[in-house]
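Please check this:
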Amino acid sequence: MPRSRLGPLAIESKLGDHPSQSRVWRAIHVQLKKAVAVKVFDAPFGGTPEARAAFAVEWEQLKKLQHPAIAKCYGGGFEETDAYLAHELVEGETLTLQLERRGRLSWESVLDLAEPLAEALKYLHSKSIVHGRMDPDKILFAGLSPVLIDVRINHNHSPFRSNRPPTANELALRAPELVSDPMAASPLTDLYGLGAILYLALTGRPPATGTTIEAVTHSVIHEVPPSPASLVMDCPVWLDKQVMHLLQKDPAARPPSAAAVLLGLAEVRRRSMSRSGVAEHASAGFSALAVTDQRDRDVARKLLGRDAIGLDEKVVDETAWHDRPLILIGGLVAAVALFAYLLWPLSEDQMRRRAEDLLVQQSRTAMNQAKSSYLEPMLQKFPDGKHVDWVKEQIDRVDMYQAEHALEVKLKRNLPLQNEAERLYAEASQYERFGDAATALDQYRSMQTLLGDDPQYRPFVNLARRRIARIEYEGVDADEATQMIREKLNEADELMRDGKVVSARKIWYSIVELYGNNDNVAPLVEKAQSQLAGNATLTDN
């Protein structure tokens, strides 16, 4: 490239964290007026007929893949000596950018990242497909949900692929057998790659060290990385052990499948509610995942400031019967049972405090736990309690947060909307983003009127009420939509004069989409349509 067209696609601008090095472009399907991401491959003389036929078979297989954590493939084609694949356009930042911005992620966020990716790998492996390129720049976020991109059936053997050698940073996340032999990709190398990504997200550093290809290769094959919990002290023991299990050098020592990883992650989520650090568990000896390595136990004790000398020495038990461990433990158990009996069940105030501790974290996992473990039980146990109004308000808040997040993901991924509440709220939000606050306000108010009495739509009705209050507080110009559309058309004209074609097109598309059925502004919509048709093949200067 560069060229302005690829088959039915009008090429606009490059995508990727480093556009100058990227072969992925943002494009518009001219007939469907749909934005896509298109990856372009070149091959000498355009490839052989056999290679072209194999590539066509591959994109037909890719089109059949349907999973919420995998970017959809719409197909492919050939243009002169270039071949291309068109994929769903996921407009979000990569995991690489998130880590550059934040350094590392909290263990809760890493767990939220791990589960969808493991589900995606389980789905791919069930179709006998290996991703083979598990890198943080292959993970995009649609809202809060990770999406795996660049899935291929035949990464290594197709002539239509990138021939760029891996960088040291990319090699640091590869499985040892894949570093030794790039053709050794398997489901188990994908699992190692998943573990490496989780390690990177948890600690902010890859599991292998080195600045040169040779040094990184040696580290991947021979060096065992320090455990995440030795670097991040709030990492739960179970997540630490799961990540290190995935990073085993011997493929046979890793989890046998992505399904097994999902079971392990479910156990991590269940057990991690205790929020105890790995060092505390390992040194105390109560971890459900046994600490078999004496070095791990010593490191844990050192981290906690405890003396590890003499732990394994055998001594003769000459203590009196009443001082023996079994008697002491029995007494301790009895005391703990009495203490638990006196404290259980939790009071209304205690339940509120625990719910508040979770709600303040602002994560989906914590909010769900607050709702299921404390807020809903409070309503059942204390229906006339002093905190009942607060509880109902917080449940509404959690439901609103979850509903808005789910809708955001659907809109970003072009998934079908399930009910009238989602459709109306999405439509109103679109008007608001476009700058037509008056029409948005009318839409939000209509949601109150139409859906206000239906409990199943309560989260979206509450969201609409919140937006109504915000718009009314900020004030709204009640002028007709005609004036606003004229201003948008003028703005698009200015952008065109400055060579910003993509931005201008977005405005024209929005006018056609939002007001295409509004007879009062039909001439202005026609103007936007004519501008789209007249500038279909232009790209930014």
